[in-house]
Amino acid sequence: MNLLEVRNLRVAYGAIEALKGISLEVREGEILTLIGGNGAGKTTTLRTISGLLKPVAGDILFQGDSLLKYRPHEIVQKGIIHVPEGRRVFARMTVQENLEMGAYVRSDKDGIAEDMEKVFTLFPRLKERRNQLAGTLSGGEQQMLAIGRALMSRPRVLLMDEPSMGLAPVLVEEIFDTIRELNQKQGLTILLVEQNAHMALQIAHRGYVIETGRIRLHGTAKELSTNPEVQKAYLGG
Amino acid sequence: MVSARTARWRVRLRHLSGTDVALWLIGALLLAMVLIGSYKSLQAGRYTTRQWLDFIIFGLAQGGVYALIALGYTMVYGVLQMINFAHGEVFMSGPFTAYFVARALDKAGYFDSYPILSLAIVFVVAMAVSTFVAVVLELVAYRPLRGAPRLVPLITAIGASFFLQYTFRGLYGSGVKAYPDIELLQGTWSLGPVVIQKTLVVVFIAAIVLLVGLYLFVQHTKIGKGIRAVAEDQQAAALMGVNVDRMVSMTFAVGGAGAGAAGVLYALIFKQVHFFMGFIPGIKAFTAAVLGGIGNIPGAMLGGLFLGVFESLGPSLFLEGLGVPAPYQLKDAIAFTMLVLVLIFRPTGILGERIAKRA
Fold it and tell me: Which residues of A touch B243 (CB under 8 A)?
């Protein structure tokens, strides 16, 4: 079943068209990856889904309901949460306050406390630093916090924009393991945008290749990683 | 070996321009004037310890009022990166409206029979009116300009300031209205050798209580956290499900409530209200906000108190010692000289940005 569906989406920044008609579907319970180079339109796609950008044409459906009529905070209420590029944690708030911000749309105190414990189990390092300002965390810890913060909203769909950006390979490994775990153990549906196609295709079920605002290819992760074109352009082989 | 420190100084010296030198000289000159003036005044011994204490207590009370107004400037700046120059009028609207309530209560004799309750009513009315004016101001004058170049809302703010001044002048007239005297706050208290005016003490304590209350609200409530998140990163806040427009309204509401309360305290000290009363305290509070580090809430409080005391002590402390005739007329000049000095030498203010924005 398609949980989230993007239909013929066109988005422009002024006169420059960043997305020239993109269609994709995210199925319930899968990790879908969107790979492509710099400026291909990956981030634009995510920002449009979460309501930060308004499309010129096309539609975005969540469980059959068009999201275009909602504002960003209403889209979060629907269960779609976006971990933005560059993490964007609240540097002047503590780790715990950041996590509380993730649960902003919820009011069930017990559930929030329970989920915070879950996040701390997932990332024990955040627990050690719960009263520290987020701005003092390392890049890897900030990425963990950004993911933990998103989980606090109890999302149906997690949109992730370049979680590997600027992290050491060991940390990238760790973050990707976590993403896989979230999908396998909690059945969380994930739309993962990555430049690191190699890593993304290892954990994803299916993928789309995006180039200058258009979908170039799509298929299962296996098909894509054995496709000569993808290998040449994105996998360095 | 030259240490890193000396090396850095050498680089700085090489890049020193004529303007920099001139500015530092002016700064040094002003500092010398303050020091020499203070020394001479203290040598002359024209004022007794008690009088100095009076200046300080008056300064603290006045500074508390500045701090409460400054809170609104600094919070709005934090959230929208704009200076709401109509904030002085938000400050005026509350106590000016509440004056009529105060007069009615006074005529009915309630100020004598139920002084605390009556005062509470005046506060509530003033805070409600100022909050309302602030929220409507944002909705009508600033929200449609979100995303416009920064100069545009600034000009609008100045326009809104005039609009509000003359609207209230039209509503309530251009005369100066005298706030009723409250029996309870008349007279003095003596603590051993120290004799202090009741009004000033009450104003100072009320200001501190309100400041702490508003600060705790911003630090610990859900709305307060939403405001802080929007101030730090509007988009990230929206992505966490925060309704950004609502938080901007709440910011104006908190600032308006602070300004309305400050207005009543101001009226208790100076006993009068009029349609133009917001102008000078408004700019003073803006100075206080810049002094403390614009966007920083504790900074605004500190800046307000410091400015209040500095302004109250300054004329007798260092201007009189320098032989300036009529030093009290220069009270405002002291405040604005300080604004200019802060902008030149430490644009980030006392508590300006200590944490780097993002890694």
Answer: 71, 73
